[in-house]
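Batch manifest, entry 17 of 40.
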Amino acid sequence: MRPFKTAAAAALIALTAVAGLLSGVSVPVDAAIEGVRARGSLLASDTFSSSASRSAFNTVLAPNPTDIGFAQSMIAHHNQALYLAMLVQNHPNPYIRNLSQTVRQKQGHETGLMLGWLNAWGAAPMTLDNMAWVNQTTRELSAEDVLFISRCAANPAQMPGQASASEIEKLKKAQPDEQARLFLQYMKRHHEAALEMAAFASRHASLSFVRSFSLSVIKEQGREIASMSHVLATAQNLK
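Output type: structure tokens
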């Protein structure tokens, strides 16, 4: 049991270090990852990086494809959300500024946690086949699962809910009132796609803390969807 205790302690240190570094981040996650590497973080050092301690850690906390794929996909998903939020962080409307700050703080912190998990599992932080993992579950599928898998299978490299390059350019160039509306529309769509991914993970992940995390995503982003929907439906002026 001693190797696992050592690995678990190192895992906790690694998770805390990354979460603290990325909490409130307002730049794309790839830049944040480079910052972690440049600072010589604990993620690449000491006992936790050894193959023996990784093996001991994974023996007790063995992830399945859903655990790994969900974390990788959600990091990529959060990456764009952080970027969209950064684009409107100085918007004149206080609701937009506050929402931007909330997204950057929450999703920056969550990205740090997921990077820590993936490092603990010896998995890459991202993958090119963003949604291929949904078709690798061995658990019983519901009708909702089958529909979600079929949509993802149509283009496994495409991340659901992501804004296109042309939409991002439109957001950058828009005047304040239009920019506010576009941001809310894009982020609402973004959140809705995240809820589908999180719901799938809550049913198919093997690790209880991944399932708990996915449920927290559903709860928190669900509240934000309701708030954004209300503002879009009632606001007369978002300058």
